[in-house]
Write a structure and sequence with these properties.
about 300 residues, alpha/beta, Rossmann fold, 9-stranded mixed beta sheet, 9 strands, globular, AB_hydrolase_Est10, Alpha/beta fold hydrolase, AB_hydrolase_fold, carboxylic ester hydrolase activity
């Protein structure tokens, strides 16, 4: 299938021990200036950037199409156990180390598919943590961290819960559960508010939370000495400018780009919560101005 006449979209797959991972390669017309592997955000987020829990923005697909117009190839993926990768294990029985191993497999496949010498890792949201954890894999060109937290996930979740006044009745239970998981101990959901017991602290996801809470993105950023671009929108309600600044402070060699008015789904949105969340459902809305050029310029630069 061809987009405009500027890019070709091709199915891609990568074998791992648990099964086969699926994705999409988008190649520009002509020689690629660089190849970017897009690592998706948390939960059931697919290769297009959509999520059955309320996100229909197609941000990753739009990003791939727009980067192709700048001569940059992309590989977008479905995480193990989800969507096209449904046969590659249980998505709830996964660790950061598993995602790092999957990233390594995708790097090898992406190099073969595009002929690239090395692959850029673009992590969005939680995908940024995966990029940081994968940074020292072979054949990584560098990192692009988009809307990536600069604090451990437990701290991020705690602040997100506190920032919404509607969460006040469930906050004591949530904070107690977070403290336990951060300490490496699972929690009983008996008597817990259904919104927490069936969602955030569902027993099926607690092992993953215990694992991911151990990782400090700022510490990982400080340890990586390769090229790093940090991109953050000013109207992101999930990850703040302060997170991007924390990453940049941890790694002063990184380039920090703030995009005015960009929300968590990489599109322009106001700070008003209802209007901001509505943009998550708007596939037709374009990506925020400046996002694509910032990424394309960085990954295409001669070093």
């Amino acid at each position: 299938m061809f987009i405009a006449a500027t890019a070709a979209m091709l199915a891609a797959s990568t074998p791992i021990q648990a099964g086969t991972l699926a994705g999409t390669v988008t190649k520009p017309d002509g020689r690629s200036a660089a190849t970017v592997l897009v690592l998706p955000g948390s939960g059931p987020t697919d290769r297009d950037g959509n999520n059955p829990l309320g996100v229909k923005s197609a941000s990753y697909r739009l990003l791939a199409e727009d980067l192709a117009k700048r001569g940059v190839a992309t590989v977008r993926i479905d995480k193990r156990g989800l969507f096209g990768s449904v046969g590659a294990g249980d998505p709830n029985k996964v660790t950061i180390a598993d995602y790092v191993a999957d990233t390594g497999a995708w790097i090898a496949s992406a190099r073969k598919a595009t002929g690239a010498r090395c692959i850029w890792l673009l992590g969005h949201s939680e995908g940024g943590l995966i990029a940081l954890a994968s940074a020292k894999l072979p054949d990584v060109c560098g990192l692009v961290l988009v809307a990536t937290a600069g604090r451990p996930l437990g701290t991020v979740i705690r602040d997100q819960l506190r920032s919404n006044p509607a969460n006040a009745p469930i906050l004591p239970q949530a904070e107690a559960a977070l403290a336990s998981l951060e300490g490496g101990k699972a929690v009983s959901v008996d008597g817990m508010h259904p919104a927490l017991a069936q969602g955030l602290f569902n027993p099926k996801v607690q092992p993953y939370l215990i694992d991911v809470f151990r990782y400090d993105p700022a510490r990982l950023a400080a340890a990586y000495q390769g090229p790093m671009l940090i991109v953050q929108g000013t109207t992101d309600l999930q990850v703040g400018v302060g997170d991007a600044e924390a990453l940049a402070k941890a790694q002063p060699k990184a380039k920090l780009v703030k995009i005015d008015g960009m929300s968590h789904v990489l599109k322009v949105a106001p700070l008003d919560r209802a209007a901001n969340l509505a943009v998550m459902q708007d596939e037709a809305a374009p990506l925020a101005p400046g996002l694509v050029n910032s990424i394309a310029d960085f990954v295409s630069a001669k070093r």
